[in-house]
Write a structure and sequence with these properties.
transmembrane; 2 domains; transmembrane helix; membrane; 2 strands; mainly alpha; NarG-like_sf; Citrate_utilization_prot_B
């Protein structure tokens, strides 16, 4: 047990050190020999204390992954931060949480490093930094600017108000024009996300993935397993009471988004394989899928915004709120304008409704790689890393002398 005793002494020294010393950058042995940031240093300090205590080991995957390490480099910290689901269980269970002098706050420390992850792995990096500072304003300004541009285009080419067109979107914007615009934007978003995810994956050095590891990671990601607080009762949000609503609202959001994406894919198949062009009747698969997805994207983001506004200040990073709310706002606007377009597609205002909806959707796609959507990518990668790692032998063997 000598290694564990050494670990406990190191944790005590971290906790007893003055805060100013804890915030000084330390060196890590990684790519480029870069220093840890103050936020990363804080996570390393907290993990040293948690590694000596281990009371929260059964709460989520972060703590078992932590116990496989005695030291925490930059890649380890990025991995653990994205493995954390910010459920808050450890904060309310921790005997060393504020106002204790150790000031252990795992959710907040992890949230700050996650925010760095979104910026550091963003491509191009300048856009990641811009969105980090002004997420909400940038999201709304981008949506408004694109919607205005498309509305002016419609006004100059045919007028915003017109005789009913029986829901024929292509009478306003030709099919090839829409395909080119959104294909380019979506392609850019996927490229940027792919580059960021590849960089993250390379840095965490996960090892070979077995089929069982991939299946487990997918299962945990799709179920949001670690938003149950480790006991099935849910997360903490405003206080120490448990609630499953954060998990439920995430499910509404994710599966609503996927239903909308499925509607687009089915409509594409209708167009190119079956030769059936839009508009489609309400009872067709694309419209039903899109309607269900739009409703999910109203309920989920609205609920997440409500929880975000009520969240305890210790459970999260205040600097991340503009990014959180920017993404939520775009999701809400996407669903609201989409449902409004469906309701008004047989009216003379369809062109205006279409321009506004397309502008919002394009803004959503453009900001996907830089906002909270990216956390789903990095968190899924971290879950896969954990599923791989847990199947490997633990090299520390702390139980042996």
């Amino acid at each position: 047990m000598r290694q564990l005793e050494t670990l406990a002494r190191e944790a005590q020294s971290f906790a007893d050190a003055p805060r100013q010393a804890a915030e000084q950058p330390v060196r890590w042995h990684g790519r480029g020999g870069a220093a840890l940031s103050p936020d990363e240093t804080e996570v390393a300090r907290v993990m040293q204390i948690c590694n000596a205590c281990r009371y929260c080991e059964g709460f989520c995957a972060v703590f078992p992954a932590m116990t496989r390490r005695l030291e925490f480099g930059k890649a380890d910290l990025n991995y653990l931060a994205n493995l954390c689901h910010n459920c808050g269980a450890c904060l309310h269970a921790c005997q060393y949480a504020p106002p204790h002098e150790f000031a252990v706050n795992v959710p907040q420390a992890m949230a700050k490093v996650r925010l760095q992850t979104y910026t550091e792995y963003a491509f191009p990096a300048a856009l990641g930094k811009l969105y980090r500072r002004n997420g909400l304003a940038l999201s709304l300004a981008t949506a408004a600017g694109l919607a205005l541009f498309l509305a002016l285009t419609v006004m100059l080419t045919g007028g915003l108000f017109h005789a009913p067109l029986a829901g024929d979107f292509y009478a306003v914007f030709p099919h090839n024009t829409l395909a080119l615009m959104f294909g380019s934007v979506f392609g850019f978003a996927m490229l940027a996300l792919g580059i960021g995810a590849a960089r993250f994956w390379r840095d965490v050095s996960p090892g070979a993935a077995s089929g069982a590891a991939v299946a487990e990671a997918a299962h945990d990601a799709l179920r949001l397993r670690y938003l149950d607080g480790g006991h099935g009762k849910g997360c903490n949000n405003a206080d120490d009471a448990f609630t499953l609503w954060r998990r439920r609202f995430h499910h509404f959001t994710f599966y609503g988004f996927m239903l909308c994406f499925a509607a687009t894919c089915v409509a594409t198949l209708y167009h190119y394989l079956l030769g059936q062009q839009a508009p489609y009747p309400f009872w067709s698969a694309p419209v039903l899928l899109g309607t269900a997805g739009g409703i999910g994207l109203l309920i989920g983001p609205a609920g997440l915004l409500w929880l975000n506004l009520k969240r305890h200040p210790l459970q999260g990073d205040a600097a991340q709120k503009p990014m959180d709310r920017g993404f939520i706002a775009l999701l809400l606007l996407t669903s609201a304008t989409g449902l409004a377009l469906l309701a008004g597609r047989d009216t003379g205002a369809m062109a205006l409704l279409l321009a506004v909806h397309l502008g919002v959707v394009m803004a959503l796609f453009l900001t996907l790689p830089y906002g909270k959507f990216a956390h789903g990518i990095y968190r899924s990668a971290a879950l896969l890393k954990w599923a791989i790692e847990k199947r490997q032998p633990d090299k520390l063997q702390l139980g042996a002398d």
